[in-house]
Structures are given as C-alpha cells and as structure tokens.
Specification:
single chain, alpha/beta, Nucleotidyltransferase, domain 5, 6-stranded mixed beta sheet
C-alpha cells in the first residue's frame, strides 16, 4: 500500500467531562497504534466530572482526583507527544478531529501551555479524520455516522466504546479500511488527504446548513473549520 495509509499512522482520542468545546475538560487520552510505545493518560481535570459523563466513559471525579495526573502537566505531555509524532513524519488519526483537537487547544489556553501549533512551528497537519472521509466517500449512505456506526460499515471490531484507547484503535482501523475500499483516496499523500479534508469538512458543513434552512431553521450557522475550531467571537 502506498500513500497516506502506508503510514506511519498513530491514533489519538480523548474522553472528557462534556460536549461543549469551550468548557469541557479532558479526562483520559490515548496516543498510539497498539504497540509498546503507546501512551495513555488519566487526568484530574480540576473540576467535578458530571454523572452523565461518567456514565459514558466510567471515570468518576474521585478516581480522577486520586489517580489522575494534574491537568496542566498532562496537557503539556500530550502536546509534546503529538508534536513529536507529527514531526517524525507520522499522520495522526482522530475520529471527529475538531472535537479532540479543539478541546486540546482550549486546555492549552486554560493552562497557558504551548499550543500544538506552537510546538510544531506551523499548522496542525497531517490529520486523518475517518468521519470526514467517510462522509466524503459515501455521502448519501443512510444511518448514523458515529464511530460505532462506521465500525459496522467497515467491519472493524470496537472492543469498548468510549474508552480512549479502544476508540482510537478502532478509528485507526476504520481509516485503513477506508483506504482499502477507496483506492483514489489511498493514493493521496498525507498532506494531500489533509487538504482534501479541509475542503470536504467545509463543504459538508455548508450542505448541512442548507438542509437546516430547508427545514425552517434559518438561524443555525454550521462551522466547517477543520481540524481545530476558532474561538467563538464574543457577542456584541
């Protein structure tokens, strides 16, 4: 296999306190491809973990406080590890990349840590987002587009949903399966597939916004920025 799918590929995923990109905190994170060099973090986010978040990933406030790394230290370690992997020529696979990388960006700002872009000396790239690629390659398929849905479509086992390691490795296999199913995508270099996703994510957002307008939702704006969302502008 040639192109981006030939690697090296490394998967990244987080589990958090919630879904709001501006307020959620990272609780666990994983970076690796299943080999002995893989890295994982259990983090004390410095705030209570809501019961609904614990119900998803299983991490309680007590466990995070007792066994977790202080968030400020952990965020710095994660950024350093990601920058090292990307600087070594790897591509990072993350399902729904704007969620994880935007949260990481906000955590860096919260703890006044160097951002991933600062550590890289430029843009965050290359990132492989199987969610964007699946929507691009099979736009009109019905059904959900969550990681569990993609695993079913591409025949990838998902051992423990909402576990950072399990989700990351499943996303990695979905990415490889996408490459096998769509040779025209697999033939692209990591940088080429990254740029394709920047454009595809914007187009997908515009299509969804147009759909909402047709349904009568005229006020919803869908941000197609990928893989990191900008800080929202303060209301006037």
């Amino acid at each position: 296999m040639t192109g981006w799918a030939a690697g090296p590929l490394i998967a990244f995923d987080t589990e958090t306190t919630g879904l709001d990109l501006e307020t959620a905190r990272i609780v666990t994170a994983y970076l690796g491809n299943g080999d002995p060099a893989e890295l994982s973090w259990l983090i004390d986010p410095g705030v209570d973990i809501p019961a609904e978040a614990t119900a998803v990933h299983g991490i309680t406030t007590a466990r995070a406080h007792e066994s977790g790394i202080p968030a400020g230290s952990a965020i710095g370690e994660i950024v350093t590890a990601l920058a090292r992997a990307l600087s070594a020529g790897g591509a990072v696979v993350t399902y729904n990349a704007p969620y994880d990388f935007t949260l990481l960006d906000r955590e860096c700002r919260r703890y006044r840590s160097n951002s991933l872009e600062h550590e890289l000396g430029g843009q965050l790239s290359p990132v492989i987002d199987p969610l964007v690629l699946d929507r691009y390659a099979d736009r009109y398929r019905s059904g959900g587009r969550r990681l569990s849905d993609a695993c079913q479509v591409y025949g990838v086992p998902l051992q423990t949903a909402h576990d950072a390691r399990s989700d990351a490795l499943a996303a990695l296999e979905v990415a490889r399966s996408l490459a096998g199913r769509y040779p025209h995508l697999a033939a692209l270099s990591a940088q080429e597939i990254h740029l394709l996703q920047v454009e595809a994510a914007q187009e997908q957002a515009e299509n969804f916004e147009a759909y909402l307008r047709r349904q009568g939702n005229l006020g919803r704006v869908v941000d197609g920025t990928w893989p990191v969302k900008p800080i929202p502008e303060a209301p006037n």
